[in-house]
Design brief:
Layout: E1 5-10, E2 15-22, E3 26-34, H1 36-40, H2 47-69, E4 78-84, H3 88-105, E5 109-113, H4 114-120, E6 132-137, E7 142-147, E8 154-158, H5 164-174, H6 182-191, H7 213-228, H8 235-260, E9 265-269, H9 276-288, E10 293-295, H10 299-302, H11 307-318
Parallel strand pairs: 1-4, 4-5, 6-9, 9-10
Antiparallel strand pairs: 1-2, 2-3, 6-7, 7-8
Helix pairs in contact: 2-3, 4-11, 5-7, 6-8, 8-9
Bound molecules: 5'-O-[(R)-(carboxyoxy)(hydroxy)phosphoryl]adenosine and zinc ion.
5'-O-[(R)-(carboxyoxy)(hydroxy)phosphoryl]adenosine (KG4) is lined by residues 13, 138-140, 165, 168-169, 180-183, 186, 270-272, 274-275, 303-304.
Length: 335
């Protein structure tokens, strides 16, 4: 239809989010209740606290989104909900809320993969052109995903240990920065210089996989060794050096894959896409690769939200894909 309304629900981690999307790409409402304040003092997301917050917030966030969109349940064509991957207890809240609404109002239900959502955040900015490549960098994932058409995802590279965001958060913690550490490292990096020599994990020739745990350990060792020698390390320079290493590997592999797979577009996705250094380096690299369009969503669509889940759900809806009432949370769901 030319007036398709999809309600999106996302609760895979620490944001309770509900959104309303029109025709797969127009945001009508996008409400996100963040729990960051509740998790900060623990230095990371506490799963049980996350689940309880989702239960408290779900109906409030839903009502707010419905009010902003000025719609009734009868206007909704389908409900798209994140079924995985993520924290199981957190996912269950969203999945169950979606099922309750779908059942009560007889609305089609569609389970969505969280990473498909991150990728489809880009469609809220620009129409997608295939084949395309997406660099997905979040707290739980670091993947290069090739898409030859809508709804088709081929993971051509992924992290073998820590995700990029995880590495940021762990390095931030060793520098005594608050959770989530990514934005703090990003800010410090902007004030420092990459003067400290840190490793880059290129892995085997031709591999598009990533590895960040060695880099993380190297940062910790650098701090530790300096401490033992009674020296101090400038945390700004250390942050800048760490960030330079992460970005160097991410951008180099993305550019190489974009050329090899001869794609029309490169999409940036996931929370780490908010990183200023990464955005700038990608923009610079792709100026020279004319013919390949780089899409970088605004920060609000890079971090977890439900508009992206509704956008991915819209494609499944158009393909006639529906979930039944046995839909369950799947914390290890494959893309
Ligand atoms: O996609 P997201 O909101 O949640 C997951 O699905 O994981 O990503 C959160 C991650 C966190 O690790 C956070 O530190 C990181 O994204 N992040 C950043 C920046 N903003 C958020 N990392 C580096 N630089 C940033 N500016
Ligand atoms: Zn995410």
């Amino acid at each position: 239809t030319d007036n398709q309304i999809i309600l999106g629900i996302e609760t895979s981690c620490d944001e309770t989010a509900v959104a309303v999307i029109k025709n797969g790409k127009e945001i009508v409402a996008n409400v996100v209740a963040s729990q960051i304040e509740s998790h900060k003092r623990f230095g990371g997301v506490v799963p049980e606290i996350a689940s309880r917050h989702h239960v408290e917030q779900m109906t409030i966030v839903l009502e707010e989104a419905m009010n902003q969109a000025n719609i009734d349940f009868s206007d909704i064509d389908a409900i798209a909900v994140t079924e995985g991957p993520g924290l199981v207890g957190a996912l269950l809240v969203g999945v169950n809320a979606a099922k309750a609404i779908a059942f009560a109002h007889n609305i089609p239900l569609i389970g969505v993969h969280h990473i498909a959502g991150h990728i489809y955040a880009n469609r809220l900015i620009q129409e997608l052109q295939f084949p395309l490549l997406s660099l997905v960098v979040s707290g739980g994932h670091t993947e290069l995903v090739y898409m030859k058409e809508h709804g088709s995802f081929k993971v051509i590279g992924e992290t073998r240990d820590d995700a990029a965001g995880e590495a940021y958060d762990k390095v931030a913690r060793t520098l005594n920065l608050p959770y989530p550490g990514g934005p703090h490292i990003d800010r410090l990096a902007g004030e420092g210089n990459p003067t400290i020599d840190l490793p880059r994990a290129w892995l085997e020739e031709g591999s598009y996989d990533f590895s960040f745990s060695g880099l993380k350990s190297s940062v910790i060792n650098t701090l530790h060794n300096a401490e033992q020698r009674g020296e101090t390390i400038d945390s700004k320079d250390l942050a800048a050096s760490f960030q330079a290493s992460v970005i160097d590997v991410l951008v180099t592999k993305t550019v190489k894959a974009a050329k090899e797979y001869d794609v029309k577009q490169v999409l940036l996705a996931g929370g780490v896409a908010a990183n200023k250094g990464l955005r700038q380096s990608l923009e610079k690299a792709f100026v020279e690769l004319n013919g390949i369009e780089l899409i970088i969503p605004p920060l609000s669509l890079c971090t977890d939200n439900a508009a992206m889940i509704a956008a991915a759900g819209s494609i499944l809806y158009d393909k006639g894909i529906r979930s039944d009432y046995a839909l369950n949370a799947n914390p290890g769901l494959d893309l």
